What we know:
By secondary structure, the protein is mainly beta.
Amino acid sequence: MPLRRAPPGGPLGRGDPGPPRSAPPEGPPAAAAAARLLLPLLLLLVGARPGAQATSVDKHSLNPNSSLWDMDYEGLLHSKKTFPGTMGSYKPSLLRSSSFLSHQGRRSSLSQNLGQKPQEKQLSCDMLLKLSRYILMDTFGPSLAWNLFRFYNCDQEVNLPKIHISPLKVAQQKVKPFLLHRVLRLLRNMGVLSEAQQSKAFSLLKKQMLKQRKTPLKPKVEQSGPCPDAAPHLAPWRPGSDTRRAAVVGRGVALRLESSAAFHSLVIRDGGRLVFADRPHGPPITLRARYILIHDGGELHIGSERCPYGSRATISLYGRAGDGAAVEGFGQKFVGVGGGGVLELHGRRPRSWTLLDKTLHPGGLRHGPYSSEKRWGSRGLNLRILDAGTGRVVAAGRFDTHLQPGECRRLLAFLALQPPGRLVAAAVGDSAARSLTLETRLLLRDRLGSRYIARLGYRQPWALVGILGGDRGSIVEEKREYHGNGSTGLAVAQRDFLTYDGTRFTVTAFSGWIKGVPINGFKVEASKGIILHLVDEVTSWLPGDRIVVASTDYSMHQAEEFNLLPCPECKSNQVKIDGSPLYLHIGEVIDGVDMRAEVGLLTRNILIQGEMEDSCYGQNQCQFFSFDTFGGHIKILRNFRSVHMSGVELKNMGQQILGSYPVHFHLAEDVDERGGYEHPTYLDNLAIHHCFSRCVAIHGTHGLLVKDTIGYDTLGHCFFLEDGTEQRNTFHHNLGLLTRSGTILPSDRNEAMCLAIRSHVYGNYVPVPSTDCMAVSTFWIANPNNNLIGNAAAGAQDVGIWYIFHRVPTGQSEGQYPEGQAEHTPLGVFYNNRVHSNFKAGLFIGKGVKTTRASAEDPREYLTVDNARFHPHQDADPEKPRVPAMIDGLIAFKNNDHGAWARGGDIIFRDSGFSDNGIGLTLASDGTFPTDEGSSLEVTRSIFVGESNNFGSQGGQNSYWGKGANGEYRTLPRNKTFPIRGFQIYDGPVRMAKCTFKKFTPTVDRYSSAIGFFMKNSWQISPQNNVSQILMEKSVGLKVFFGRSGQWFGNNDNDGDKMSIFHDLDGSVTGYPDTFIGRADNYLLRHPGCLTVPRWNGVMCTGKFAQLYIQARRPENLTLSIARAAYHSHPLRLQGVNRGAPYQQYQPVVMLEQAYIIQWDGRAPEDIILYPINFNRGDWLRVALCYPREAVFQVVADIYQRRTGTVHSVKHYLAAPSRASALNGTGQRLFYFDRASGYLFVHLQAHVARKGHSYCSQQGCERIKITARMYPGDSWSCDPNPFPQRPPSSHRPVSQHLAGPCRVCGAPQLVITSTPSVKYVRIQIQSLSRADIQNHLTSAFIKINDTVFLFNSRGIFFVVLDACSGAVVSRRHFDTVTGENTASAITDYVQTFIKERSLVLICSRDIAEVVGSSEMSVFTRVGSAKPIIFHKEGSFAMLGYKGQAKPSWIKVLNHAGYQKAASLQHYVPLKLKEYQCPANADESLKFAFSQNHSERFSPEPVAPQD
Length: 1506
């Protein structure tokens, strides 16, 4: 979540259940109030020229305790994208030259471009728009934000004289003038506000206040007070129930509905007003109707923005499909708003959704629940031994002490191995008494503390739960008498315990006879009422409310619902759930990527629902759905007077009918100020769940704000833009999950639906599901000029967020923009969105929909998924400069296929995290040359993880479960054998810089590589693909992989497979700077200085490389063979790309300044065109082409202008007298045909300069056209090599330039999270047990980020960090072997020397008994929920905290000697609000290191190969 809300008690606080009925909500304390007002004033007063570089304002300049500074707006400030009405602030000269510079480089270039000093701190006008429109909305609510700042875009430079400051605008909001003076003084002192900026800001402000509006504003809906039901002119209304009555509230009628009512229909029109009475202590009000229609001045109110409804209200829509006539324009079973209508629904606004802040394990326990039940075959004593700190069963045994006398010895030996403090559960199966000796009984009595074991009789049921070595007060046991009738009932022993992290769990043992059958067993489960730890305050969530916890695994079906229980012991960020989770839900940052599960509230106090039948019926697509899908719907038409909805729940809404959706804005056009709405339209804090057709449909509507809305368990695209015309809409902090397939559009359908629904195809066409359908998405964005900020797409059948492109507007919007406009429209804001648990992809940018009806030429259905490319340009004009699309702050994890796929350009991914995806990220070019204009794509400052420590859990339709690279079982994407790739290169050019890779290691089942290539690729690949400043952590076992023949890769023999290549600019991947990496068998790249890397199936070479694009006509079906003369015995055979064009095309990567031989598997084509692409001026090749010996040639050079299709600079080649003269490179246009060998020789050279990533120069693409006239029967075979035999020239050898350690490589940030303003420290604790040391492991360690503290002595070690700054403030070693009274020393250190607000890191090495105590309660001071009992020869690790708070990240591991050594890894947040850090706390991560007892690991040099 990018933006934090105001705390409860503040204006429009999301945690506030609503103000008292008698008065508006109270304001915040004075300091906080002042700070709240300072930010909007700052935004109003600071401005600069369009395009000025934005920088973050110093947060310490204002009150640092203000909650405003908890909001993460820094990322928005640094994002160079546009908001509604703006087309971008890029300067044309900057676009082409510096789009791939570093962030600082772009900043410097931009500043220089605008004639500014780079160090000046300025906020651009566009940044003002972003901050005002979205941060102010989040802080103050939409209404106040819009009144404070109403700008849409930034005008051109305003050259007006300085305007004196006037507090008029802010005074209207009751802001005192002295605050203006304070803000101006503050800005002046900061050096942020210049005179020019003041002039700009106030010029804009004055113009906005004085300008004439083109569209008259629709007046606000008048109210006599904040609460609509308190209006004195309302008449009480108690109409009762009459389902035959068609009720009308018309002219002059204003009613207060004070009791439940039912009608056939309700129409509110002609100025009539209906208001729901708000009686918090009265009965809920339910209004039932087949439909409700509001139009022509009619108004329906439930609460208001300033006075949220406090009671419970329900609108229930009833009726079966086909019952009665449909209302024109609306259909059946609806709430409809027509022209002039008013719909104001405002319930309580609880926090809509947040993130899990502590991992929720299956069953609520870290190792899951345990259950065992036996009948026959379990005779004797059955025992379970449990770890008291976790509830995990660590040992189990059955001892037949009834028939086997020797079992007593085995039983005692088993118990002797168990250390004191373990939990024990015992149950008799059948009988355990006959051979149970007196000695054994007495020992069991003393060891277990049992009162009954000494007198246990034949077949007597007995169960016990207790603590080994504990007193009798710690034991619970029960026995039953056996009477011989075969039924005794169950003896049940049950007791609650506490884990180290504070989770209560119940251990149950039972034993008995039921109808002659013996039964015994055990259960270990979390006690009823598991407490969830959440990121945000959720006091607005009430007992009885229902929540959903999102999946954090590959299957969206692992989302789980729970009811909330009363929880007086819960903190403000905790809730207690009724029920036990089945799956793992992550609540932490893992391996640097934020994988915390979303937790959404499904309950609101205003409910709109459809009344449903028990099962599907009639014509409701019952072949696909077993349940009734004919729900209610809300439809809003153009020219409504006012529509705002907040705090509303929608359930059983939507119909599998076109146009009937839970909330549907239908051709409403502009619904903000641009459309004349003084109070812009919004949907805020809605819970849309268990619905049957979408969530929010925005059709022909612009400027809508959809905020804090949940869409859960719905059919078809959830948040849906329909025709491709919809622009300037903003989706802010919405959550969509469990998005299932529907039937309405081809893109909604799954495979079965796609094949079965064929009523709109032409003829007998059978759809291809994988390409025509199967695209259902949580966010279906049909026009790029919309804003997505802080949303979560947490599970869809296909895609989380899909940017789809309509070549022309479709549906009822046909003709509203010219062909291709959407594909060229710049991207709106994309910032801080999360995508996970989607089957196809988290984010998909590319493809379109078919915009023509089915016909014989194209029999596919209208709106079938089709091909399209995204190539944004200024003003959507391809003749103007590109406007790079910025994907900023994407988090993509556990998506089965792709984390993200983007096709087009320019597109830049930055500050993003990709983890546990089949493929992390694929960047695909705009298209193959020559249709691609040379766009490019980039990913920078990002983290890629192959197999993280999120192991997942089986079930919930997860298909694959197998061993990971570390040997532990985990869920897997796609298939157990699927080749995992972090960054996949498809074609290019693509660039990757400052990225970190972790945990890409092959297994016996599958390949896993950090960098890989698109499999079975027939497309071209650009040698301009490049990487730099890449950090491959030691957990990366395979950096690069080019594939091998076999499963998934096929023959690995397509053109693109062979030509795979990228450029390692600085050696951060290979170890050698300025190195190209290609496939090992590609001899077009090789020279004697290259190095082969067998594990990569690759080769590393230096040199200069480009592409030779070859078009061939007549015939178009030949295989081309190309070889470098130096390696003529190793030709490469290319099949070409068959695109149905009237020519074939081939695109080999070639080494420049070399000679190449081209042959064919048949007679040469009559027409061949050679394009030198990616050639810089002066680059050249010598080319020999094989022809029949009697061929006659015409060779022409020209320049082809791709955009206009024109040709210029035509020059004819002349026949040269010799090969040498044709190839001498003097600049003459000559060719030579050697009839003896059959080779035509040409010198191919670029004469015009090329810029940036363009394939060709701005003048066009240089080319040579060869036309050959050949005769039937001519021989066309040629010798392998017509060039003189020479040994391959040795370019600069790779091995002479080993790169040194790179200290600036990798992502600059430690973690990618949904709260970027929170800083983290990475902690790793590795303890050692006695067994580890005997196995020659020597050092325990604590690692803090990249600094390692090694511990070689025996004992317990403490490292203490300041929780506010991250600085190491203390370290201490306690010898548990020779130290005297160690327990007392540890207690004194923790209580006296460790300060409040400290992170406490503890590890052990060969721990012995702690002298002075059997259990140590002092560890409860640093976060353990109970005292620690150390295991002799075991291991201990703890991540603790000393302070008033008890953070959710506290972890304790206390292992016995036979268990794996205790090891912890965690990303710990610094300077959290709950730490109560002082105002002057240092935010940077600083560590004070002493040399005592520690060493620092030096970064290892980059290895030349894996």
